[in-house]
Amino acid sequence: MIPWMVAASLALLTQVVDLNGHAVDPLKAGPGVVANVLVFTTTDCPISNRYAPEITRLADAFRGRGVRFSLVYPVPTDSVALIKQHLSAFAYRLPAVRDTGQELVKLTGVSVTPEVAVLDARGRLVYRGRIDDRWVDFGRDRPAPTTHDLEDALDAVAGGRPVAVTETRAVGCFLSDLLK
Predict the structure, then answer these.
(1) pLDDT at 90
(2) d(CA 163, CA 172)
(3) What does the alpha-carbon distance between residue 47 and residue 172 come to, in Å, rounded to a whole number?
(4) Among 42, 56, 87, 141, which one is most buried in terms of CB atoms within 10 A?
(5) CA–CA distances in Å: residue 113 to residues 22, 25, 75, 159, 173
(6) Which residues contact 109 (CB under 8 A, 6 or more apart)?
(7) CA angle centred on 11, ends 34 and 180, rounded to 5°
(8) Which of 26, 130, 33 is nearest to 73 (CA)?
(9) Residue 157: how many other CB atoms lie within 10 Å
(10) 36 φ, ψ to 5°?
(11) pLDDT (0 to 100) of residue 8
(12) Can you give the pLDDT at residue 159?
């Protein structure tokens, strides 16, 4: 996605709501925020669920460096009750939004869960893809990752440097299958 398109597209977000049904803008930078991380997930994707501890670790590690994380649930069948149950079961302490119109999906170009989109304080998409390379392919994972793509991208953004690798291929549950 062309960076200026992300900023220009923010006004199109009309169906992104928090768990109380209030419209929210998870891309708004606000004071002290250098980046917003959108973590696309679902309540029943096993790969997404296995990443919960790593997502929490990264959110905690970067909170003091001006990085804000939000969980994005783009599947309409993930009800508020299911999402709350999911947040509790995986000990998430992050803000969560429902993107039932898939506006954030379209805006960022994500295609699977888990997949992340990192937007800088100006609303430019600076990284999209996997959290790390733990998953080689669907059904094939490593005991431990060898690269930490999201962490590297966040280190760069929080340090005021350009992101070296701006896009990677995420492995997970295909949104096109879940959105039917």
Answers:
(1) 97
(2) 23
(3) 6
(4) 42
(5) 24, 20, 10, 27, 5
(6) 1, 117, 125, 128
(7) 100
(8) 26
(9) 24
(10) -115, 130
(11) 42
(12) 96
Q: Are 18 and 84 in contact (CB under 8 A)?
A: no
User: CA distances (Å), 47 to each of 43, 75, 167, 170, 176, in order?
Assistant: 11, 16, 19, 11, 16
Helix (H/G/I), strand (E/B), else coil: 115: strand
Show pLDDT as tens, one digit a residue, over the chain (180 residues).
444 444 444 444 556 999 999 999 998 888 899 999 999 999 999 999 999 999 999 999 999 999 999 999 999 999 999 999 999 999 999 999 999 989 999 999 999 999 999 999 999 999 999 999 999 888 899 999 999 999 999 999 999 999 999 999 999 999 976 665
Hey, what are 91's tokens?
Answer: 């000990």
Q: What letter would DSSP give residue 146?
A: S
DSSP-derived 3-state class of residue 175: helix
Bridge-based pairing state of the strands 35-40 and 140-141: unpaired
How far is the C-alpha of 83 from the C-alpha of 64, rounded, in Å?
26
pLDDT for the residue numbered 61: 98
Q: What string of DSSP letters covers 46-70?
A: HHHHHTHHHHHHHHHHHHTTTEEEE
Residue bearing tokens 């340090």: 159
Tokens for 62? 């970067």
Give the pairing type, strands 112-113 and 115-120.
Answer: unpaired
